[in-house]
Specification:
This protein has 222 residues and is an alpha/beta fold. Helix content is 17%, strand content 37%. It is globular.
Length: 222
């Protein structure tokens, strides 16, 4: 399958799920020398996060169950993780409805575009729109899509760790993922193999790599 043209998309962020946010942030700081900043809670979803920026405007979201909220279908699996693991990634783009239509033409099934919000500690309310892809077998290998509207993006107020040096996806059906990456126009290495998501990045204490085998992704639709 070939694409008609490439959308203007950029890697927005990667989601690193952990069973406990404080421990995950402490481990990240020990490994890199950079302390993530608290991002805030996701009301009704049972999670909260912390953030750290890469040099190229992408960022890492460390997400974990929020003990101040009830357990949800999103937070429960995170509590069972043995260690922080990559679970999903996001593409930033304007015109999400048009992008969803193009993906539908390619055979993907987009979820509805939803409006979301969160208020960082001591900060102003952030609002964004997003949609995901569902009814497929790729889990978190298939990204979700976000438009930050008029809100400042999290990297603008997050500590910087270093340059994002590589993004790798492996899939049992790499052609479908390669076509998706080609449409989006992002620099991602796609190979055949057991499903996995991996990133490498520079830090004050050397190169760091995070991986996620069979990344489950967010459940944005059924």
């Amino acid at each position: 399958m070939t694409t008609k043209h490439a959308f203007h998309g950029e890697i927005d962020h990667f989601v690193l799920a952990a069973p406990n946010l404080d421990r995950a942030c402490a481990e990240f700081e020990r490994a890199t020398g950079v302390a993530p900043i608290a991002g805030g809670a996701h009301p009704g979803r049972g999670t909260h996060n912390a953030l750290v920026a890469f040099d190229d405007s992408a960022y890492l979201e460390i997400i974990a169950p929020d003990p101040a909220q009830a357990v949800t279908g999103m937070s429960a699996p995170m509590a069972k993780l043995a260690a922080p693991t990559l679970m999903h990634w996001a593409i930033r783009s304007r015109g999400l409805e048009a992008l969803a239509g193009r993906l539908r033409e390619m055979g993907w099934t987009p979820t509805p575009v939803n409006r979301m919000s969160r208020t960082p500690p001591g900060g102003t309310r952030l609002e964004w729109e997003l949609f995901g892809l569902h009814r497929h077998h790729f889990g978190g290998l298939a990204p979700f899509f976000i438009d930050w509207l008029n809100s400042p993006r999290p990297p603008s107020t997050s500590p910087r760790v270093g340059a994002l040096t590589q993004v790798e996806l492996s899939a049992d059906d790499p052609v479908a993922i390669r076509n998706l990456v080609a449409l989006l126009g992002v620099a991602v290495k796609v190979s055949a193999g057991s499903p996995g998501l991996a990133i490498s990045f520079a830090s004050p204490r050397g190169e760091i790599r995070f991986e996620g085998a069979n990344p489950r992704g967010f459940t944005l639709g059924d």
